[in-house]
Amino acid sequence: MSRTLLFSLLILLLSSLLPTRAIAQKDDLVHRSCLHATYPEICVRTLSSRGGAATPRELAQLAVKLSLARVRKASDFLSQIKGSGRREQGALSDCVEQMGDSVEELNKTLAALQRLRRDADFRWQMNNAETWVSAALSNEDTCLDGFKEMDGGIRSDVHRKIMNVARVTSNALYLINLLDD
């Protein structure tokens, strides 16, 4: 009877360690991959809280999905702001358009990463993914440029939101570049 109980406890203990080991391996991948990212703390924090990335490619895809979600959220936020004048309203409208372009580019990036294979097209697919994420970053910069000459709360709100998006997008680009190694 004692043997059966001991065996049951051993099975229970081992089964509880398996998921922990899988989580530790995922966290190791995140920490190793984010170590030299432009924004390593943001990289680790945002990707560690998401599950499912077992390979560097899956982690890069996850980073792009996270960036895409942030762009959409920022676009929704910007769409709800009312500018105090024509110039401010024009900058907001341009920024929403830039975020829409970023959504398209990040969707293209995600599709390229999902098709990515180490074959004759690998370099071409990587170039496409890197180009589209870089274009999304440029859109985010262009959005901020529209507010450079303005003062006030809207400018700081837009800056805060877009910088948040740009940091996550920059980390996604870094993780994509790691796939080339």
Automatic annotation (TrEMBL):
The keyword Signal applies. SUPFAM superfamilies: Plant invertase/pectin methylesterase inhibitor. It is found in: Secreted, Extracellular space, Apoplast. GO terms for molecular function: enzyme inhibitor activity. Residues 96-123 form a coiled coil. Residues 25-175 form the Pectinesterase inhibitor domain. It holds the Pfam family PMEI. Its main location: secreted. The keyword Signal applies. Keywords: Apoplast, Coiled coil, Disulfide bond, Secreted, Signal. InterPro entries: Invertase/methylesterase_inhib (IPR035513), Pectinesterase_inhib_dom (IPR006501), PME_Inhibitor (IPR051955). It comes from the Eukaryota. Belongs to the PMEI family. This is Pectinesterase inhibitor 3. It comes from Sesamum calycinum. The lineage of its organism: Eukaryota, Viridiplantae, Streptophyta, Embryophyta, Tracheophyta.
